[in-house]
Amino acid sequence: MLSDGCSFMKGMLLGGVFCLVLSFLGSFNFSSESSTEDHHHHHIYAPSKDELKRLSDSRVEELKNQVRVYCIIMVQPKILVYWATVLDTWSKHCDNAVFYTSEGSKALEAVDLNEKDDWARLRKALIHAYENAGDLRWFFVAQPTTFAIIENLKYLILAKDPNEPFYLGNAVKSGELEYVEYSSGIVLSYEALKRLMTMFKDEGQCPERTHALWKMGEDKQLALCLKYAGVFAENGEDRHGKGLFNKQNVVNMIKQSMQDNPTDVVEGCCPDMAVTYGGMSPNQMHVMMFGVYRLRPYGHDFHDWLTFYPPKDSDND
């Protein structure tokens, strides 16, 4: 009896040690982000003005008409005020903005996915977008706390071929996995989404439901499925190396810059051609709409090489 008790205690001790080792390895591989020097993702830049000037007027016009964006906006009834704010602000500049909800709402129109699990819901939304995109070839996935400047996104991907596999945003690394952070928006080309549809059929490498012990966020799940499809995360940034997809809101970024770069706050803060800011409140989104689309110095002409107009008949700023 004593021997059995000792064996039981040894088993418990060994089991505890094994769990600790698993926890350590799990935190090392899946949650620790490496430094910038250790990443392997590519960097995606918008074309320079000089590059645009080399293109013929007809080619520029062709590219403008070709770069059209299907916005996939993931919402829930419990955050109705964010949902309503995105509907009333930046989503109007998408060529097609579709809201996907975890459950139906009588207040606002959306595709009811009837799904509580975050990853399964995102999968269903991506499948629906792929099947209903028509001739749109770029897809932008956003949370309702994200503010996006769609014209800057179009400029970033202007010369990119949607028939090539692009998966870009704010690319970071967790263990061996590089992924695009959901909170700052995710961009997928048609080819990337097409490959993803094939991976969704492979439950071995891209399961719809994950084991609770190894549960990852939906952005990491997405990256894993895309990785198996040969599509890898790429970082969107300007020519100075500033990230164009930001998980922080603009207020926090300015505050941080005031601490880190008190003599040059603006240059140390935000890129001129930022595509997204995350963690935005409804009030902040309305202020951003005013600053980005309405506030203009009288008599000043903007000499941009090309102009992206919102969808025809769209009620936008």
Describe the structure.
There is one protein chain. The chain is α/β, with parallel strands linked by helices and 317 residues long. The protein has one domain (42-294): Spore Coat Polysaccharide Biosynthesis Protein SpsA, Chain A (Alpha-Beta Complex), CATH 3.90.550.50. Helix content is 40%, strand content 15%. The strands form three sheets. Strands 1-11-7-10-5-2-3-4 form an eight-stranded mixed sheet, with helices on both faces. Keywords: Membrane, Signal-anchor, Transmembrane, Transmembrane helix. It is a single-pass type II membrane protein.
SS strand fraction: 5-15%
Largest sheet: 8 strands, mixed
Helix/strand/pairing class, anyone?
A: alpha/beta
Fold-level CATH name = Spore Coat Polysaccharide Biosynthesis Protein SpsA, Chain A
The assigned CATH architecture is Alpha-Beta Complex
Number of domains: 1
Shape: globular
How much is the radius of gyration in Å?
A: 22 Å
Please tally the β strands and state the result. 13
Overall pLDDT score: 83
- The N- to C-terminal Cα distance equals 80 Å
Number of distinct helices? 11
Q: Segments where pLDDT lies below 50 for 5+ residues?
A: 1-39
> How much helix, percentage-wise, in residues?
25-40%
Strand order of the largest sheet: 1-11-7-10-5-2-3-4
Helix and strand sequence: HEHHEHEEHEEHEEEEHHEEHHEH
CATH class: Alpha Beta
Membrane topology: Single-pass type II membrane protein
GO molecular function: glycoprotein-N-acetylgalactosamine 3-beta-galactosyltransferase activity
GO biological process, one term: protein O-linked glycosylation
Main location: membrane
